[in-house]
Amino acid sequence: MSRTSRLNCIIPPYLLKKLLKSDDSEVRQAALDTMLTTARLRGERAVRASFAGMAAPGNGRRTVFDCQQGSFLPSAALVRTEDGPASVDESVNRAFEGFGLTRDFYQEVFQRNSIDDRGMRLDGYVHFGMKFNNAFWDGQQMVFGDGDGKMFGDLTGSRDVIAHELTHGVTEHTAALEYHNQSGALNESMSDVFGSLVKQWSLKQKADEADWLIGADVWTPGIDADALRSMRAPGHAYDNDLFGKDPQPDRMSKFIHLPDTEEGDSGGVHLNSGIPNKAFYLTAVGIGGFAWEVAGRIWYESLKVSGKEATFQDFADTTFQKAGELFGAGSAEQSTVLAAWQEVEIQITGVPAGIARARSLAAANGSAGAGRQDGLAALTTQVAELGAQMTALAREVAAMKRSR
Asked: Which one of the listed residues 127, 164, 165, 343 is annotated catalytic?
């Protein structure tokens, strides 16, 4: 099975494994059933992958089905359509509204026509399985479990979770980032980034007003945890007796090396995504305003031109180049991107270490005298020159590829 067509689940495997050690037999059983069902679905996905991209276009029309605690999707009952009335089932309505919110975000902000940019239908299935502790995108539709009611609640309850999963579809139809190691962690990060942006867009929040949490609504009230992940502070989303401390790293010196297996989270894709997540957060708050307008545009345009095996370094370089193309070489936007990646210990190729930090310090103290202003001007010029050199080099490489 292609690594781009794996089952993308919001609850990472290392959290479900923690539940197998719970003192509560019902919690253990729900976690085990979830893991076994997920393993079976991955096998089915291998068959369905050959039909990927065959979903009929439908202008992003939404349809929601009720699995009625079953796990065989073809037997699910149709319960809400684009033209039909609201349901008495709030899970149905939340899924339907979350689909519409995500679809409208991509259309209005990036002029993208649904997930595949060709009007792909948005099909969702609620009440999947018995106490199923997950929600996932399988390449064609999104499926929601109800949770076990003790650790996890109804997975339709989080709009950023819905946007996160649907963004896996956007990634499939753009960069098609392979779902393992660094490219897989980037895949997860893209979903966190745009999942958070959809939530911020719906609330009309500026970057400094947002909580930057992913899955804050998936835990039951009795669980001492803020969210599944924190983009503002990777590694600090939760810390409790059952799940332990959030293991996400926030910089390359803390990168977690795991085997590229299902048990190893495909090389730690849900863990190491904390590094590019932090870079985006720093970019967004550094630029300020509404994060989807500038930082989101840079990331989206970079996703569209990235290769399927892109590393963190590759993507960092691409965002720096795109920021220069969109907002000018040496612009404040490009320098903020540079500083953000440096903060997570990824140095943009060809840019001397520390230049962004020096520029930020000069800007912060610019009123201290003309000498600092001259230093800022010099640094801005240097960033502009380096950006222009990278752009020219990228064009040369592209020309060489076309001539082959």
From this structure: 165
